């Protein structure tokens, strides 16, 4: 394992378990290991559908709103 990859893994240790699992799934996909499709519960599916409908109507966040979200999270 390279030093850089080791550093990346070390930086992930403090993340919550669900975030660690998400990163692990992404790494497995990048390495060519197929991952099962994510199954949405009813609330998640409804939220996703609502988001798609908003996008179809051209309703997107403004640049100002995006900057506010980034600032809130220190980005």
The secondary-structure element order is HHHH
Average pLDDT confidence is 92
Total beta strand runs: 0
Question: How many individual helices?
Answer: 4
Q: Strand portion, in percent?
A: under 5%
Low-confidence stretches: none
Helix content: 55-70%
Structural class: mainly alpha
Q: Measure the end-to-end span.
A: 30 Å
Query: What number of structural domains do the residues give?
Result: 1
The radius of gyration is 17 Å
Strand count, sense and barrel status of the largest sheet are: none
Protein topology:
Layout: H1 3-12, H2 17-30, H3 42-56, H4 63-72
What does this protein look like?
- With 75 residues, this protein is an all-alpha fold.
- The chain has one domain.
- 65% of the residues lie in helices and 0% in strands.
- The chain contains four helices and no strands.
- The longest helix is centred in the middle third of the chain and has 15 residues.
- The protein is extended and about 45 Å long.
- The relative contact order is 0.05.
